[in-house]
Design goal:
Number of helices: 2
Strand content: under 5%
Low-confidence stretches: none
Radius of gyration: 18 Å
Largest sheet: none
Mean pLDDT: 80
Helix content: 55-70%
Shape: elongated
Length: 75
């Protein structure tokens, strides 16, 4: 029987890989859209510049939800 720690490590590795792949895919998609439709991105409506950050708390919450839903780990 596989321990819950081993399952958790496996889920972490899968989650890290999925994050890396989705980040790269999103960057490629954004570059494609910018190259194909530059006229749509000529002006910047945000004044002052809005800075959005993905906090560590949000990533922890997403990780816990991932573990609970996908790996079926119960408290």
């Amino acid at each position: 029987m596989v321990s819950s720690f081993a399952v958790m490590i496996c889920c972490v590795l899968i989650l890290q890989r999925l994050f890396a792949l989705s980040k790269a895919s999103g960057q490629k998609a954004a570059q494609y859209v910018l190259q194909q439709y530059p006229q749509n991105f000529a002006n910047d409506p945000a004044d002052p510049q809005i800075e959005v950050r993905f906090s560590i708390y949000s990533s922890i919450i997403l990780f816990v939800v991932f573990l609970l839903l996908v790996c079926h780990i119960r408290w």
